[in-house]
Amino acid sequence: MKQRFRRRYRTAKYIFYKETLIDYREHFWTFLGSFVGIALIGFIHSEYLTVHDNLFIIGSFGASSVLIYGIINSPLAQPRNLIGGHVVCAFVGVCVYKLIPNELWLSSALSVSLSIVAMQITKTLHPPGGATALIANIGSEKIHALGFMYVFSPVLTGVLILLLVAIVFNNATPHRKYPHNKHWYKLWKRSYRGKRTRNPK
Fold first, then answer.
1. pLDDT tens track of the chain, all 201 residues?
2. Of 2, 17, 41, 123, which is least packed with CB atoms within 10 Å of its CB?
3. How far apart are CA 44 and CA 52, in angstroms?
4. How far apart are CA 134 and CA 93, in angstroms?
5. Distance from the first to the final alpha carbon of the chain
6. Contact assessment for residue 129 and residue 119, using Cβ atoms and an 8 Å cutoff
7. How far, in Å, CA of 75 to CA of 184, rounded?
8. What own/partner pairs with CB < 8 Å and gap ≥ 24 does 17-23 have?
9. Contact of 78 with 179, CB cutoff 8 Å
10. pTM for the full predicted model
């Protein structure tokens, strides 16, 4: 029992030590990637879409940036989770709001809860997705007016921009590698990480 406790204590201490190290290169690329990702979405929104009263940026993109630019090795930050999590949650959020448009407390709670379960089932857990589902219910009239278009824009289009920027900036130096799974585009495979398969002899 004592050995197990000591082993866990050493592991926790090591993780805490690693997470609190100051790595200026890591911080630089984290800043640059997140800045360009959000700035690009915001620029497109402000320069081209505001005139047409379209929406292109939502709050949950900020939380996604923390993961895909700051914790790039996390399973929750991988492309499958980023894209799938937001799209699944956006769809669930819109569906719930359409079914229960007049009870905000109920639609909000159902949206978040069902979204979490949906992400678990589809293996696309991405914490900011919960906010995407919530925004579909508590957002402005402009968001409500989008209906299911909310799933495609701003959600899918914005997520794809964040992903492309992450692939560029997270692979700009040898000490960063993203995504963790080089076969990430195989969205039909229900796994968080790429698994090596041994060739039969």
1. 777 777 877 776 665 555 555 678 888 999 999 999 999 998 888 776 655 555 778 999 999 999 999 999 999 999 999 999 999 999 999 999 999 999 999 999 999 999 999 999 999 999 999 999 999 999 988 899 999 999 998 999 999 999 999 999 999 888 888 998 777 666 566 554 444 444 444
2. 2
3. 12
4. 6
5. 43
6. yes
7. 11
8. none
9. yes
10. 0.80
Q: How many residues does the chain have?
A: 201
- Judged on CB neighbours under 10 Å (0-12, 13-18, 19+), 42 is middle
Place of tokens 């000490």: 175
Name, in order, each residue with C-beta under 8 angstroms of 127's C-beta and a sequence gap of 6 or more. 63, 67, 76, 85
Give dist(CA 29, CA 31) in Å, integer. 5
Alpha helix positions (H), the chain? 2-19, 24-44, 60-65, 79-99, 104-122, 128-138, 141-146, 149-150, 157-169
Q: How far apart are CA 154 and CA 12, in angstroms?
A: 39
Letter for the amino acid at 51?
A: V
